[in-house]
Amino acid sequence: MNFYYSQDRAPIMEALERMKRARLVPFDVPGHKRGRGNPELRDFLGSRCLDVDVNSMKMLDNLCHPVSVIKEAEELAAQAFHAAHVFFMVGGTTSAVQAMVLTAVGRGDKIIMPRNVHRSAINALILCGAVPVYVNPQMDHNLGISLGMRVEEVKEAIRRHPDAKAVLVNNPTYYGICSNLREITKLAHEHGMMVLADEAHGTHFYFHDDLPVSAMDAGADMAAISMHKSGGSLTQSSMLLCGPNVQAGYVHQIINITQTTSGSYLLLSSLDISRRNLALHGKEIFSHVIDLVEYARDEINAIGDYYAYSRELVNGDSIFDFDVTKLSIFTRPIGLAGIEVYDLLRDEYDIQTEFGDIANILAYVSVGDRPKDIERLVAALAEIRRNYRKDSSKLLKAEYIDPIVACSPQQAFYAPKESLPIDKTAGRVCSEFVMCYPPGIPILAPGELITEEILTYIRYAKKKGCQMTGPEDMTIRNLNVMRSDGTKSLPSLM
Amino acid sequence: MELWFTEKHTPNVKFSIKVDRQLYSGQSEFQRIDVFDSKEFGRFLTLDGYMMLTEKDEFIYHEMITHVPMCVNPDAKNVLVIGGGDGGTVRELLRYPTIESIDLVEIDELVVEVCKKYLPQTAGCLGDPRIHIYYEDGLKFVRHAEDRYDLIIVDSTDPFGPGEGLFTKEFYGNCYKALHEDGIMVNQHESPFYPQDAYAMQRAHKRIVGSFPISRVYQAHIPTYPSGHWLFGFASKKYHPVHDVNWVRWNALGLKTRYYNTQLHAGAFALPNYVEEMLEDVEP
Question: Judging by beta carbons within 10 Å of its beta carbon (0-12, 13-18, 19+), is residue A130 exposed, middle or buried?
Answer without folding.
Answer: buried
